[in-house]
């Protein structure tokens, strides 16, 4: 478990995002501290990715602010990345016709100082910067287990390795905070376990991680804290144990009966009536037999 005595790398205060009359995110506060892994969960449509987009400058929040290491960030994605926040996406967004190494090099653009003329003239300074970027990119490919695929086209990688490549490209900007949007979506258990180990390794390097995921076992095994969004609002935040035992979280995922909803007896009566109507139409069993069959099925289900 990571301690949180240091100043946060991320401070989101009262973040609200409206699209016309729809409020997708409402007054969400969230802090992430150095070396900490924080999970963000919630049912589909809860506003998780919208909140991520507000953090990374893809959306301009209607209200609230986002600060990185105490400095409020401008709502421009490249400036957010330059400040020290990187992200992956729910849907893989690699450059399909570029090699694995070239994809990672793209992520270095905010950490290089060479301009257009330097690139055109290819002077000594440019060559040194290019060599340094390639060396750093190869370090990240080694770190993510993709070094032997450096010259492969990214589109030819298996799905799990494409996910790893997205993470390597995000790490190429040397972020202090990494945002992962459903990093294990579509993965098998072995790939999920490998991703979990990779995120722990990233944390051990000192990078804070904020992760959206629907795989609850992955989230609760991974995270120091978990925040739950429901209908755009933060419902609860705490350790995995606290969140798992919160009745509001269970209700949000499993649903709660609405007022006046039929109970077991009423449901049995409806089923019996439907069974009776079916057998009556076919000249089969009597209504009493249908009722007994329904009761037996109900008892077996219990």
Tell me what the structure shows.
There is one protein chain. The chain folds into three domains: 1-84 and 175-256, P-loop containing nucleotide triphosphate hydrolases (Rossmann fold); 96-166, no CATH class; 264-301, no CATH class. 44% of the residues lie in helices and 20% in strands. It has twelve helices and ten strands. A six-stranded mixed beta sheet has the order 6-7-8-3-9-10, with helices on both faces. A hairpin with a 2-residue loop joins strand 9 (225-230) and strand 10 (233-238). Residues 257-263 and 280-302 have low confidence and may be disordered. Keywords: ATP-binding, Nucleotide-binding, Transport. GO terms for molecular function: ATP binding; ATP hydrolysis activity; L-isoleucine transmembrane transporter activity; L-phenylalanine transmembrane transporter activity; L-valine transmembrane transporter activity. Residues 262-302 are annotated as: Disordered. Pfam families: ABC_tran (PF00005), BCA_ABC_TP_C (PF12399).
């Amino acid at each position: 478990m990571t301690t949180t005595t240091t100043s946060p790398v991320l401070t989101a205060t009262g973040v609200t995002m409206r699209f016309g009359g729809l409020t997708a995110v409402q007054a969400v506060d969230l802090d992430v501290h150095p070396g900490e892994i924080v999970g963000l969960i919630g049912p589909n449509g809860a506003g998780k990715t919208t909140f991520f987009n507000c953090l990374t400058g893809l959306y301009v929040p209607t209200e609230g602010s986002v600060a990185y290491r105490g400095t409020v960030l401008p709502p421009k994605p490249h400036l957010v990345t330059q400040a020290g926040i990187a992200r992956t996406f729910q849907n893989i967004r690699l450059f399909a016709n570029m090699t694995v190494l070239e994809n990672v090099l793209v992520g270095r653009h905010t950490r290089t100082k060479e301009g257009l003329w330097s690139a055109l003239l290819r002077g000594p300074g440019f060559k040194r910067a290019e060599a340094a970027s390639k060396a750093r990119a190869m370090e990240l490919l080694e770190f993510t287990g993709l070094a032997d695929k450096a010259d492969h086209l990214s589109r030819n990688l298996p799905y799990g390795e494409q996910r790893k490549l997205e993470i390597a490209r995000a790490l190429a900007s040397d972020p202090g905070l990494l945002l992962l949007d459903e990093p294990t979506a579509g993965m098998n258990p072995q790939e999920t376990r490998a991703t979990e180990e990779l995120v722990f390794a990233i944390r051990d390097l000192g990078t804070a991680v904020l992760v959206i995921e629907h795989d609850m076992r992955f989230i609760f095994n991974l995270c120091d804290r978990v925040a739950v969004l429901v209908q755009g609002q933060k419902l609860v935040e705490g350790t995995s144990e606290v969140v798992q035992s919160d009745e509001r979280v269970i209700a949000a995922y499993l649903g709660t009966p609405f007022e006046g909803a039929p109970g077991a007896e009423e449901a049995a009566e409806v089923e019996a009536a439907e069974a009776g109507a079916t057998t009556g139409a076919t000249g089969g069993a009597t209504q009493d037999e249908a009722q007994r069959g329904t009761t037996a099925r109900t008892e077996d289900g219990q």
